[in-house]
Amino acid sequence: MANFTLSGFLLMGFSAKPEVEISLASLFLVLYLVALTGNLLIITTTSMDSSLHSPMYFFLKHLSFLDLCYISVTVPRAIYNTFMHSGYISLGECIVQCFAFSLCAASELSMLTLMSYDRYVAICFPLSYEIIMDVSKCVHSVLGVWIGGVITGTLHTAGTFSIHFCGSHVIHQFFCDIPQLLKLSCSNEYINETGVSVFLSLVAFICIAFIGLSYIQIFSTVLRMPSAEGRAKAFSTCLPHLAVVILFISTGSFEFLKPPSDAPSALDILLTIMYTVVPPTLNPMIYSLRNKAIMAAVRKVFQRRKV
């Protein structure tokens, strides 16, 4: 850490205590391997099994790929820094990390919004589902998610690194977190980033409102179903997705909307973990363990490999 220069930043990591830092890094390594295995399994299964070639699983496959990218942006570097006993990250690496993180976070929200629309159409308009959610629309929708993510990452990164940094250059996080970077501004130079944040917050609010309205319509339709089996099937499909949405949005919103504090706290780290590490790790388990079609497809994949 003594080799820190003005050409980069110093990441404080998970904890100031070395023994706690090593323990948490080891835990994060396990979580990362779980996320890696689970998401790769979903990607492989939904690609190989023809029975899962539907819009729902097409979006799930891309969500799993997004989760892989999302968790890989921050966690491996944080684990590496801990075991190497160095929190230094160069300016260039910090810029790339900010861009990739903003891209993945925005794309994650967009993909969850898209998946809520898919469930809305499937449950509220089942007879028109294949017409509304045809292949070309699904591909164009996912392409739009990635383009929107790239635009968001570019705006956020350009706004953040257009300011001048001074002071300690110490980031009280385990990655280059934009709110923490803005605290290092020499003065109130971050008006551009504030404008970008307000605009993107409005877009995020529209996505969240759309998800909320979609699920109001979904639950209204499900509760009117005469068949108890049909209601159970619909809820088993929608509730896991809703749980992921609530976890991701609630923790991320609270972290970004709470008043900034000069003194770092364990709560800041915990909230960041809740929306950066937990969703990509839990998504495969939530979607696979509660989904009979995916579990059956996973068994088919393993049986083929044994043969």
UniProtKB/TrEMBL annotation:
Keywords: Cell membrane, G-protein coupled receptor, Membrane, Olfaction, Receptor, Sensory transduction, Transducer, Transmembrane, Transmembrane helix. It comes from the Eukaryota. Pfam families: 7tm_4. The keyword Membrane applies. Gene3D superfamilies: Rhodopsin 7-helix transmembrane proteins. It is a multi-pass membrane protein. Its main location: membrane. InterPro entries: GPCR_Rhodpsn (IPR000276), GPCR_Rhodpsn_7TM (IPR017452), Olfact_rcpt (IPR000725), Olfactory_GPCR (IPR050516). It is found in: Cell membrane. Residues 38-287 form the G-protein coupled receptors family 1 profile domain. SUPFAM superfamilies: Family A G protein-coupled receptor-like (SSF81321). GO terms for molecular function: G protein-coupled receptor activity; olfactory receptor activity. GO terms for cellular component: plasma membrane. The chain crosses the membrane at residues 26-46, 58-80, 198-222, 234-257, 269-289. PROSITE patterns: G_PROTEIN_RECEP_F1_1 (PS00237), G_PROTEIN_RECEP_F1_2 (PS50262). Belongs to the G-protein coupled receptor 1 family. PANTHER family: OLFACTORY RECEPTOR (PTHR26452). Putative odorant or sperm cell receptor. Odorant receptor. This is Olfactory receptor. The lineage of its organism: Eukaryota, Metazoa, Chordata, Craniata, Vertebrata.
